[in-house]
Amino acid sequence: MNLIASSPVIPATTYTLAHCVVIRENDKEYVVHMKTWSEDGTIGYHTGNYFQKRDNPREALLAAFEKFVERARRTLEVTD
Fold first, then answer.
1. Nearest in space to 36 (alpha carbons), one of 68, 5, 66, 9
2. Which DSSP string do the residues of 29-74 spell out, in sequence order?
3. Which of 18, 50, 59, 60 has the most crowded Cβ, counting Cβ within 10 A?
């Protein structure tokens, strides 16, 4: 999968892994995931939101971007 966008990385703490929100793309869909790094450097992708390209890839990308912004703001604890 190709990386489209990434939020800033939240550093690991005693209770959490280092993580960020990403948009990734393959031929059929865009996916918004939580990307994590374990202490040994293993990368994982969790809690995906999937947006099918089908007939309108632009709409799928827009929907994925909106979800990305929502999740990134929540992860980074951004308030209005």
1. 9
2. EEEEEEEEE-TT--EEEEEEEEEE-TT-HHHHHHHHHHHHHHHHHH
3. 60
Residue 79 reports pLDDT greater than 80: no
Which residue bears the tokens 């703490």?
Answer: 13
Tokens of 62: 């827009």
Q: How far apart are CA 80 and CA 30, in angstroms?
A: 27
The domain spans of the chain are 2-75
Amino acid at 37: W
Threshold 0.90, pTM exceeds: no
